[in-house]
Amino acid sequence: MALSEFKHFGVPTSKRHKSETYIEGAKVYVTDPESHPYKVEFLRFEADSPLPEAVQTRCHAAFQVESLEQALKGKNVIIEPFDATDACRCAFIMDGDAVVELMEMK
Known about the structure:
By secondary structure, the chain is mostly beta strands. The protein has 2 helices and 8 strands. It has one domain: 2,3-Dihydroxybiphenyl 1,2-Dioxygenase, domain 1. It has helices spanning 53-57, 68-72, and strands at 3-12, 21-23, 28-30, 40-45, 60-65, 76-83, 88-95, 98-105. An 8-stranded mixed sheet has the order 2-3-4-1-5-8-7-6. The radius of gyration is 13 Å and the shape is globular.
């Protein structure tokens, strides 16, 4: 799997941020990592969020890949591919104890 680019570092938090965006299906509020000087994305989960505990409680690194389908082969997928935006498709894997987000730009 060729990683093309580091995209952001995701950090679960209980603190509200001014510029949060709510993602209804995931029941999570997220900030825009592009607006942070170190590309940090803060994630604040509602108590009944359906996302895996590992995603809700651990930091994650996000990488852009050329092909999400290829990058997921043989990996421990904990969140199946989904359309995060009109331009980006994502999935989450566990690599040992690390949570990793893989992103494919459309």
